[in-house]
Amino acid sequence: MGTPSWIQDSEKVVAENHPTLDDVANRPAKTLHANAIVDHNADGTHEKLTVGSDADGDMYYRAASVLARLTKGAANLKMFMNAAGAAPEWAKGMSVVHYTRDSTLASGSVAYTGAGFKPGAVLIFGRLAGNVNPCIAFSDFTSYAGMANYTASNWFYDISTWVFNVGTSTNHQRFTITSADADGLTVLWTKVGTPTALISFSILYLR
What pTM did the predictor assign? Predict the structure, then answer.
């Protein structure tokens, strides 16, 4: 059996089981798809992939033309892209924040913070103090729906006028969502009639 024509007279093998990019084993793959091979230093070590401090569950991703390690996340965390949209990260991806509003305040825009991230969707629940009529609503910042109980027996459902509405049919405050922000959201409150009690509401933020 003759020597295959693609084997050179001198092959570079730095150490046992650690060939360079140009040796017998790698040359066909290099010819077919050079980008499929991890770059090596001249001594055969990997320049762009260091696994000496990794652990089970760690992951690798491309970062500025090299491979970077993402340390494994804690139990039940989820993977998200970071705020810059440049790299993955681990996070819970949800938070609950409680707020209040004086219902005697005039209509106006209010920014609410504390989410810890820019939300992709929200679930809202609240009511006017001393009033048994609650409101529950949700939104993905494109579409929304809200249900409010203006009286003890009548529920109202809305997908076009308001997201959140608490009080009575003649005296209430309601809002629409105007934006998802880096740490929460901004809403536009509208005062109708002369509500006088404190509004308490909670928001479940979902990343």
Answer: 0.71
